[in-house]
Amino acid sequence: GGAPEMNPDFRWFIEGVRKVSPTCTIIVRSNLTIITANKKYHDLPQFFANHKVELVSSLPYFSRSRTDSQRGDGVFEASIKALQLLNEVGYGKADSDLLLNLVYNPTGAFLPTSQQELEAEFKRQLLRKYGIVFNSLYAITNLPISRFLDYLIESGNYESYMQKLVLNQTRDWPYLSQ
User: Fold this and answer.
1) CA trace torsion 73, 55, 3, 32 (10° rounding)
2) CA quadruple 55, 60, 61, 64: dihedral positive or negative?
3) Which residues pair with 138 in a beta bridge?
4) Is 139 left (phi over 0), alpha (psi -120 to 50) or beta?
5) Which DSSP state fits 58?
6) Nearest to 60 by CA among 92, 105, 90
């Protein structure tokens, strides 16, 4: 848990990897809110850009109410500000090699809709409302473990959720058929 950027050796590690392998892909699963949460991290957008770090960040939804209900009050506003700061240094822009990818996962006992449809809608809404651009949206399905498993069992949704997973399996999910 937590943001990898908070590790005291994070910047040293990124710089070291880039020195050893100038062309390798470095991907950081960033918690957007870290960028605006503390002045210590406000320079992260430029640091990421300087080191050509590909970013993958969660944004539960393109609305304040759904995002804050899933991640906590104020997360949406902090995430939007962070995305705008990342766009300012070139992330997500069509003419840039700085990749900014978002992750969506639904809350509750249901599966996400079409990834392509979600991506198109996220792109429309974030651009229209906040001037934000990004490269791709990844829609993921919640794995029934830990708190989510407890929720499924307590709410009586475990069996139906597992059936949805099995009925919607593809060749990309071979572990579901084993």
Assistant:
1) -20
2) negative
3) 103
4) beta
5) E
6) 105
Other residues' Cβ atoms within 10 Å of the Cβ of residue 92 = 21
Please check whether residue 31 is in contact with residue 3, taking contact to mean a CB–CB distance below 8 angstroms. Answer: yes
Query: Of 58-67, 95-104, 107-116, 168-177, where does the model show the most confidence?
Result: 95-104
Measured distance CA(51)–CA(54) in Å, rounded: 9
CA distances 15 to 19, 47, 59, 71, Å, are: 6, 10, 27, 31
- Token pair for 134: 């990004």
**For residue 172, is pLDDT > 70?**
no
Tell me the per-residue pLDDT of 88-145, one tens digit each, with 9 for 90 and over: 999 999 999 999 999 998 878 888 888 999 999 999 999 999 999 999 999 988 788 8
* Percent of the chain whose pLDDT exceeds 70: 94
Distance separating alpha carbons of residues 116 and 137, to the nearest angstrom? 8
